[in-house]
Amino acid sequence: KETFEGHQVLRITANNEAQITLLKELSEQGHLGLDFWMEPIRESLPIDVRVPFNSLQAVRAFLAYNHIEYLVMIEDVQNLLDEEQRQMLKSHV
Amino acid sequence: IPRNTDDFVYTNYHNLNTIYSFMDMLVAEHSDLVSKIVIGQSYEGRPLNVLRFSTGANRPGMWLDTGIHSREWVTQASGVWFAKKIVTDYGRDPALTDILNNYDIYLEIITNPDGYQYTQTKDRMWRKTRKPNPGSSCVGVDPNRNWDAGFGGAGSSSSPCSETYRGPSAHSEPEVKAIVDFVKSHGNIKSFVSIHSYSQMLLYPYGYTRTPAKDQAELHELARKAITELQSLYNTRYTYGSIITTIYQASGGTIDWTYDQGIKYSYTFELRDTGRYGFILPANQIVPTAEETWLALMAIMEHTKNNPY
């Protein structure tokens, strides 16, 4: 079963077209295992990306180096999924 | 498993079998109003069930589907709530009663059952279908890029490992082909709403071209009206417009195909939420989400009824 311990979802705000281009390049880095929930399209739309724990350092460094703003939307994806499972089990019982 | 649809817990997420059982219970309880149609089979052989709400023969139809992207759990959960809402309100709510006295409503709650089962058992974040791709270790096709509307164009991927993989050919996915065959064989579907999450948007064609839909002005005004209704309940912030101008270019999408088939009132929803939980919307938000969405769906269905074409 696929688990998501330590995965974070970052909400990224691009401020210009150059940053959108950088984020598109980031999305093509398959080895990072990024899952774009909302893709980099244009400045007016937020970008949400699930980042595996092993890629967090690289992605955060990339964003900081390029002065791209972001916040952590979900601190630990697995915590939320565990809570979801607990609620489903509780309801079933 | 609840014994009837009154006992069913609408404030929680449920597995595939429980939702299939819910459909059967609803049909058994309201056999004069609801029937179940199996329009095909998924790749893994699961039935593609559609609930048909009908009060007479040879009526034009209105289509709703939820869960074509399997990880968008609030949509399947909302679909369950919509089904119960329809049987509850028929005969009580004059607007819905009037719709059902003139139109059939078709509701496909689990549009991508293999994907949904996979999200329940293996990978909660799975989006696509589950058909293997020859020559690739990556599985599945994005069923919202697999339609014969600008198929293969920008805003879809040719890589089987991409979340937006379009598939080898238009309608290659049985989950998509089943709807295509149903819509074509029915021949009189007048509105089509495909429901996704989560960006809080109501979108109309096109996604594959910047050419405006010929009915754009009417579609835009109806979207405004629908969103005004939706926001009247919890003031949830929504945007609306054509897919390509509001969100992004996306080729091979569902409602571009339905619109090109002549279904004027073709819309796609992106339900809650913006920037907090994404696909993991807490279960306590299912009912509020469904309630507000229902108001918008009613606006679209009423407009469809009042503006025959």
Summarize the structure.
Helices cover 43% and strands 23% of the residues of chain A. Chain A has 93 residues and is of the alpha+beta class.
SSE diagram, text form:
The complex is a heterodimer of chains A (93) and B (309).
Chain A: E1 8-13, H1 17-27, E2 35-38, E3 47-51, H2 53-65, E4 69-74, H3 77-92
Chain B: H1 16-29, E1 34-41, E2 47-53, E3 61-66, H2 73-89, H3 94-100, E4 104-108, H4 113-121, H5 174-186, E5 189-197, E6 201-204, H6 216-234, E7 239-242, H7 243-246, H8 254-260, E8 265-271, H9 286-306
Helix pairs in contact in B: 1-2, 2-9, 6-9
Explain what you see.
- In chain A, a hairpin with an 8-residue loop joins strand 2 (35-38) and strand 3 (47-51).
- A 4-stranded antiparallel β-sheet of chain A has the order 2-3-1-4.
- Chain A is built from 3 helices and 4 strands; from the N terminus they run E-H-E-E-H-E-H.
- Chain A is elongated and about 50 Å long.
- With 93 residues, chain A is α+β, with helices and mostly antiparallel strands.
- Chain A has helices at residues 17-27, 53-65, 77-92, and strands spanning 8-13, 35-38, 47-51, 69-74.
- Chain B has helices at residues 16-29, 73-89, 94-100, 113-121, 174-186, 216-234, 243-246, 254-260, 286-306; strands at 34-41, 47-53, 61-66, 104-108, 189-197, 201-204, 239-242, 265-271.
- Chain B is 36% helix and 16% strand.
- Chain B is an alpha/beta fold.
- The chains are: A alpha+beta (93), B alpha/beta (309).
- The A-B interface holds A 1-2, 4, 9, 11, 30, 35-39, 41-42, 45-46, 48, 50, 73-74, 77, 80-81, 83-84, 87-88, 91 and B 9, 11-15, 121-125, 161, 163, 199, 247-248, 274-280, 282-283.
